[in-house]
Amino acid sequence: MTVGIQPRTITVPKRLLLGPGPSELDPEVARALSLPSLGHLDPAMVEIMQDIKRLLQYTFVTRNEATLAVSGTGTSAMETALANVIEPGDKVLVGIMGYFGDRLAQITAKLGGQVIRVEAEWGKAIDPDMIIARIKEVTPQVVCLVHAETSTGVVQPEIEHISSAAHEVGAVLVVDTVTSLGGQPVKVDDWGIDVCYSAGQKCIGAPSGLSPITFGELALDKINKRTTPVSSFYLDLNLLRNYWDSQQYHHTISAPLVYALHTALDKIQQEGLENRWKRHEINQRAFLAGVEALSLDLLAEKDHRLNTLITIKTTEDIAERTIRQELLNDYSIEVGGGIGPFQGKLLRIGLMGYGSRREFIIQLLAALESILRKHGRPVPEGCSVAAAMKVYETAL
Amino acid sequence: MTVGIQPRTITVPKRLLLGPGPSELDPEVARALSLPSLGHLDPAMVEIMQDIKRLLQYTFVTRNEATLAVSGTGTSAMETALANVIEPGDKVLVGIMGYFGDRLAQITAKLGGQVIRVEAEWGKAIDPDMIIARIKEVTPQVVCLVHAETSTGVVQPEIEHISSAAHEVGAVLVVDTVTSLGGQPVKVDDWGIDVCYSAGQKCIGAPSGLSPITFGELALDKINKRTTPVSSFYLDLNLLRNYWDSQQYHHTISAPLVYALHTALDKIQQEGLENRWKRHEINQRAFLAGVEALSLDLLAEKDHRLNTLITIKTTEDIAERTIRQELLNDYSIEVGGGIGPFQGKLLRIGLMGYGSRREFIIQLLAALESILRKHGRPVPEGCSVAAAMKVYETAL
């Protein structure tokens, strides 16, 4: 039997990654990937994992002991959150304002939870009062929300008020911060979030494959009182905690990803969370000034725009696909396209982690400006970069 | 609120990894990890993933179209195998001769399968005739076996005969090759295996975090006829296939792990599977000659010893823990210890992938010899290295 392919050494083009993820890696994070491998029981590895736990507590702004990184992508963290707290038959109120809210509902249904949807039109945030009213009406066991909806660039406001309402009826609040953690304010303890998770490859600035998650007391209490086993072995929180806290064998964590995550989190602490949030905010403002100079329209409304992911509506005269292909082929810049109802109608631009930097924003604006002009849009030369630079001159 | 730790740059000791995994990385595989990141939709990434699929078909010796790598460790691949083919209520015959067979039973139970155990004492293989007799008696829907039991160093013989018996009653055969794939013969199509999975960090020679898996027609047919949804979204085969084959978004695969897996698999094809199996066999023989010269006892019986993982019984005069600590601290060599009934009583030595090399074996034997002598064992100087070298002189 002969199968296989011609041997080849892979060559990888250097892209500027300004899509919805993975984001650009700090050169030091990339370098950490090729440190020598260590076994998961090596004392040096145990110490690095303990560091990661504490650095994650810093990043989530929590004192939760049950804080660790799941050995999988953000979706595995989402499933870990839901699979541990939801029991079959539980009423689960799911806030849906885009693709990832819908995914929360899909996973909940697979786990046997009764999904109660609270929806907003894609591109808008869900009215917190509507969520709170539904919580009172339905008295669910679990409430799930997406804080930063990657499909639309919208931030869900008033998590702390929703949390109070959830706790009044004894519900556990699960919040997805895949596109916000490490990029804009997320305060697990202050906001009263019971389960919060994220991913490595967005604002944290690591590669994907190890995903932060944290569980508070209310969630642990619900897990301890389960009458049915957690359906997954790989994502079972109690097994994961024994692995992280007591080195009880569960799986073989990926050493290069551990080094990279440690380095990325250490950089967050060195920069300081407040400074990092501020940096993402200023870069977003500068980019938006450039976008406005180019007369492009944004999807998300002013008060609900993420600092980390910006969504620009495209129009029929220049197809989304054309812009993305020209950015990739002529400038080696990756940005994302629309999904769901916005398929072919949206640019999704991630300014996340190391990717939220002045020089990258200038590169992207200059490229966008040239592409628009090439396709007949009457944009004044240099307008977008000038508009962005003006924000930097005032802000810094 | 002030949480966090002192900032620090991690320093990682260089170990020689000769435990049950992770194994040593080829320097080219380590280098591939720090290639520039790519998004999962980048045409260059799509091409690399298609390569990986074909290289995995070569490594599994299969023409199965449903061949890919799961974004998690070997345990996630085990769960992917079981979660997709097992429906609640299915009779699942599980062969158990060590820790990982037991894990198959645990996951099966979590998924609602009825576990029927066929066991051998840890350290022995299961009699294939006993498995075949039980298959005829029980007529299960699924049969699960561990080909290479990492906890004991034992290989399960006659998979192809067990496969025929399983197929006679219409059962799907799932085989764990975590510690054999890429190191000693595994032939998915010739042996009639319906679902086969492995891990990156053993004989494949990649880091952990992306785990090979393949499904044949009988397994796909059972999955298509399911009357209940697969409980996991993250590990749902149909979603994974759409992601690998049609770039339908499911998760964000870890670019560094993709590069490393591609490089490791490419090296397998360049070496040639037969040559690679032969290399592992010769290195095992050389190492065993050295172990015999040291008068150490092996756990696994002659006919059922893995070429990839060797288990040495320790005795009370020199504790397992002492040997492992001295190897680590004085020689920077990692080997594994016993688990389950062999806790504190076994050395587990992995000679896997790039780690199956003459120079590493010589280093380990020389170190073991010195440690034994230091603790009062009357071993002639240089005996173990000489015995190993003699095997190489004859074999090469």
UniProtKB/TrEMBL annotation, chains A, B:
Q: Name one GO biological process term.
A: glycine biosynthetic process, by transamination of glyoxylate
Positions of post-translational N6-(pyridoxal phosphate)lysine modification: 202
Tell me if Isomerase is a UniProt keyword of this record: no
Under what name is this protein listed? Alanine--glyoxylate transaminase
**Any idea which positions bind substrate?**
348
UniProt lists the family membership as follows: Belongs to the class-V pyridoxal-phosphate-dependent aminotransferase family.
User: Which residues does the UniProt record annotate as the domain Aminotransferase class V?
Assistant: 39-338
**Does the keyword Cell inner membrane belong to this entry?**
no
> Which interval of the chain is the signal sequence?
none
Required co-factor(s) are: pyridoxal 5'-phosphate
GO MF annotation list: alanine-glyoxylate transaminase activity; L-serine-pyruvate transaminase activity
Q: Which UniProt keywords apply?
A: Aminotransferase, Pyridoxal phosphate, Transferase
Q: Please, which domain of life does this record's source organism belong to? A: Bacteria
